[in-house]
Design a protein that fits this description.
- The complex is a heterodimer of chains A (115) and B (117).
- Chain A has 115 residues and is mainly β.
- In chain A, 0% of the residues lie in helices and 50% in strands.
- In chain A, the strands form two sheets. In chain A, strands 2, 4, 5, 6, 9, 10 and 11 form a seven-stranded mixed sheet that branches. A four-stranded antiparallel sheet of chain A has the order 1-3-8-7, with no helix packed on it.
- Chain A is globular, with a radius of gyration of 14 Å.
- The termini of chain B are far apart.
- In chain B, the strands form three sheets. In chain B, strands 2, 5, 6, 10, 11 and 12 form a six-stranded mixed sheet that branches. In chain B, strands 3-9-8-7 form a four-stranded antiparallel sheet, with no helix packed on it.
- Chain B is an all-beta fold and 117 residues long.
- The chains are: A mainly beta (115), B mainly beta (117).
- The interface between A and B is medium-sized, with 32 and 25 residues.
């Protein structure tokens, strides 16, 4: 089945220790998104890739970076996690056809704990 | 700027009751899309419905129905004869083209629905 996969589902890291979250998709979608969702809050968009073009949200901290080595994979790097970065991180994909909306498909998320 | 307001933070109903989740939105775009997503305790966001701004026809899918009214900027979601499996957080979201085909979703804060057996 075509889908969005996130690994790992649960990640524990230490304060200040870099961590990488992974997302892969078999949908062959052009656009990949990373959202941060803190407890009892709505998902908040961090950034997205349209093909290889990176689009950062204005209020995304520099501590968060992303890589997209190919169409199928996208990574979220947190360079120095703080306690406030503990959250669920959701990856989503969509086709990107100009002028036509394409809905976003979400992965199951990675729950990050910072000790 | 886009904004989605879900005024109901938490709702509890007894099984088999009907429940309506409210959603009010703000946007300056003339073309936009509205969504409802369900987020069960497992965390995955499950797409329920998409409605574009030119289609105000209400929709029914099984026990789910949606009422879109542009005059009041509302897109409400009703579950008929609720079941325990409907317990989840429900998010209303709005999207418009941010350029080059990559639509960004603006979510409401969500409504936590608890269906009591």
């Amino acid at each position: 089945d075509a889908m969005v996969i996130q690994n790992p589902r649960y990640q524990v890291t230490q304060f200040g220790k870099p961590v990488t979250l992974s997302c892969s998709q078999t949908l062959n979608h052009n656009v990949m998104y990373w959202y941060q969702q803190k407890s009892s809050q709505a998902p908040k968009l961090l950034f997205h890739y349209y093909d290889k073009d990176f689009n950062n949200e204005a209020d995304t901290p520099d501590n968060f970076q992303s890589r997209r080595p190919n169409t199928s994979f996208c990574f979220l790097d947190i360079r120095s996690p703080g306690l406030g970065d503990a959250a669920m991180y959701l990856c989503a994909t969509s086709r990107g056809t100009s002028g036509t909306y394409n809905e976003q498909f979400f992965g199951p998320g990675t729950r990050l704990t910072v000790l | 700027a886009q904004k989605v307001t879900q005024a109901q933070t938490e709702i509890s109903v007894v099984e088999k009751e009907d429940v309506t989740l409210d959603c009010v939105y703000e946007t300056r775009d003339t073309t936009y899309y509205l969504f409802w997503y369900k987020q069960p305790p497992s965390g995955e966001l499950v797409f329920l419905i998409r409605r574009n701004s030119f289609d105000e026809q209400n929709e029914i899918s099984g026990r789910y129905s949606w009422n879109f009214q542009k005059s009041t900027s509302s897109f409400n979601f009703t579950i008929t004869a609720s079941q325990v499996v409907d317990s989840a957080v429900y998010f209303c979201a709005l999207s418009a083209d941010s350029g080059a085909g990559s639509y960004q979703l603006t979510f409401g804060k969500g409504t936590k629905l608890s269906v009591i057996p």
